[in-house]
Amino acid sequence: MLRTLKDLLLLLVFSCLWLGASQITALAQPATPPDSASMIARGEYLARAGDCIACHTAREGKTFAGGLAMKTPFGTLYTSNITPDPQTGIGTWTSDQFYTMMHNGRFPDGGLVYPAMPFASYTKVTRADSDAIYAYLRSIPPVKQANRPHDLRFPYSNRSLIIGWRTLFFSEGEYKPDSTKSADWNRGAYLVEGLGHCGMCHTAINALGGSSESQAFEGGLIPMQNWYAPSLTSNKEAGLGDWTIQEITDYLRTGISSRGAVYGPMAEVVYNSLQYLNDDDTRAMAVYLKSLAQGTSPEKPSSPLPSAESSLLLSLGKSIYDRECASCHGAAGLGMPPHYPPLAGNQSIQMVSAVNAIRMVLNGGYAPGTAGNPMPYGMPPFAHRLSDDEVAAVVTYIRTSWGNRGEPVSARQANELRSATLN
Amino acid sequence: MGFVTLSARYQFIFACLALVALPFDAAQAQPADRAPDTMAARVLACASCHGAQGEGTSDEYFPRLAGKPAGYLYNQLVAFKDARRKYPPMNYLLEFLPDAYLKQIAEHFASLRPPFPVPAIPVVSNEILARGEVLVTHGDPQRGVPACSGCHGPSFTGMEPAIPGLLGLRASYISAQLGAWRYGTRTAAAPDCMQIVASLLTEDDVKAVAAWLSSRPAPADPSSAPRGSLPMPLACGSEPN
User: Is B61 in CB contact (< 8 Å) with chain A?
Assistant: First the structure.
């Protein structure tokens, strides 16, 4: 009897041990397969960093089912379905084929991808990160929605032209860390130059729709959208050399900072992508972005001497400013940061291109609603209340007052931007 | 016990230090102006077209928002954000605002009660005005046109949660909206009852309805009718039953 009990106990103990061991094995197993939950989560995070959703989801459309019209100087492109639907999405693609698309801009059949897909940036993404994004995209619900054919003008409708474009503007290759720089700097460079594809807007685009590597991050007008993406290398534009790391991370993460707030296309980037990045990555991007502009401090501010004509413009500008703007931005242009941005010393107001300042006056704008700033403040539009002359006067006033060094703008410039695409 | 005493003593010392340090801090820090932490300050972007209190402005095409039910205002904000209701300046402003915030904005304007504008002096004939009154209050049963009051209330102040009031709006705005529904440029959740109603109206009907509604004086009580209190003649996707 006793022996039987002892046996029973032993059996129980061994059973428990065996069960425990098998549980450990079961826990250990999912770490190896490619589509583990953690890999999918990492892929989702990286897809956020790459802002895939901004282009691959149409308004009111299904997530990642494509169909968004992208107007380009060459015609309209329609983005593709990247859900795992086997017929209309990328459900039959292998991870190798996905990597080839990201890294080399080629479809599984070898066809060339239009460079509106930022493969010239994504080529810097590592194979491991590409595989994680692939795993994530396989985990989302498949959507059956056929891709809409592009509507490109002749001769751009000829895909073989892409070969020429690639020869000029595409250099394949994963990001190579610079061993002389910090880990933060390298991580930031990897994100900014790779998944972040910041250069797509912040590098001037030429008549061929390409951007030259030697002009990387030097800024340019975004075609069709009529917003100016400022230079990230010049402190006279959006160069962040004089910003603190905290100011840069606030700006990237929440959309507002004590130096300025994001509007226009950059509001989209913060809303859909940057607000989701973790502290380490945001900081790394800030470190890298700050380094891009170091050593080029802004010149000492000096007020331009007004001629008779521009002094008339300035006095009209000042009266409009005092009436319409000063209640938030202050008589001395100091604003009430971070919600009412300062105008005095604000780089984006003094840039050679006055496009953004004019558009903010015409169209107003809300900073994006983010986790860090869920209830943003908005700038009122004035297009319906101010004439072209008045817009020119008030923009000239803010570009040249309080030590700001911008050039005056004309009524014609203001008028041209009235018809700019809003949305 | 001794530890507790010691700890309490340290706390006291720290408190004294903090009290001493506080005035210095306050003196050193610039009293930086902060934007007021209010909804009114946050929605100043709306004021240049809709008025600081949502009362409307002199521009005929920009509607009064104040006092409309929050559900209605929220539906419009979401429709503009998603560009289902098309007006580029609004689509642009709302594109990157989260729905939770749009709800707060809607509730803000719904809660405001600024005075109604002076009613418009009709610029149409008495005959057209009379036609408008009949259509608004009785509809046209022969053509299947329901009375506006059936859903928008006998005093046209709307119904909670999502049927708007029709007073304090100008004729140009009302006819532009009815036109937008007729031509399909303004749509709402299915069944889109206003699209059905507007498609039954002729251009003359629209002119008459807009003229009469815009000439109405302010309601004695601007509150919307309670949820479900009106016998709606049509099912509406925007107004849950």
Answer: no
Q: Do B49 and A422 touch (CB under 8 A)?
A: no
Q: Hey, is the C-beta of A372 within 8 angstroms of any chain B C-beta?
A: no
Report CB contact under 8 Å: A381, B49. Answer: yes
Domains of chain B by start residue, with CATH: 39-111 (1.10.760.10), 126-214 (1.10.760.10)
Residue-wise pLDDT for B44-58, tens only, equals: 999 999 999 999 998
Listed in sequence order, the residues at least 6 apart from A399 whose beta carbon sits closer than 8 Å to its beta carbon are A349, A350, A354, A357, A406, A407, A408, A409
Question: Which is more confident, A268 or A235?
Answer: A268
Q: What is the pLDDT of residues A113-137, one digit of tens each?
A: 999 999 999 999 999 999 999 999 9
Cα(A81)–Cα(A148) distance, rounded to whole angstroms?
9
A419 touches chain B (CB under 8 A): no
Residue, of B64 and A165, whose pLDDT is higher:
B64
For chain A, say whether B120 makes contact (Cβ under 8 Å).
no
Residues B220 and B163: their CA atoms lie apart, in Å, by 19
CA distance B219 to B43: 26
Please give the model's pTM, rounded to 2 decimal places: 0.86
Cis peptide before A142 (omega within 30 of 0): no
Report residue A190: phi and psi, to 5°. Answer: -60, -45
Contact assessment for residue A285 and residue A191, using Cβ atoms and an 8 Å cutoff: yes
Contact criterion met (CB < 8 Å) for B95 and A380: no
Tell me the percentage of chain B whose pLDDT exceeds 70.
86
Q: In this structure, what token pair is assigned to residue B237?
A: 């996707």
Q: Which two three-digit tokens encode residue B61? A: 């095409």
Q: Strand order in A75-78's β-sheet? A: A69-72, A75-78, A151-152
Q: Span A337-352, mean pLDDT?
A: 94
- Contact of A198 with chain B, judged by CB distance below 8 Å, is answered with no
Chain A residues touching B35 at Cβ < 8 A: 328, 336, 339-340, 377
Measured between CB atoms, does A326 come within 8 Å of chain B? no
Chain A, nearest residue to B92 by Cα:
A423
Q: Any CB–CB contact under 8 A between A336 and chain B? A: yes
Q: Please report residues of A whose CB lies closer than 8 A to that of B98.
A: 369, 374
Task: Note the pLDDT tens digit of each residue in B1-25.
Answer: 344 444 444 444 444 444 444 433 4
So what's the ipTM on this one?
0.86
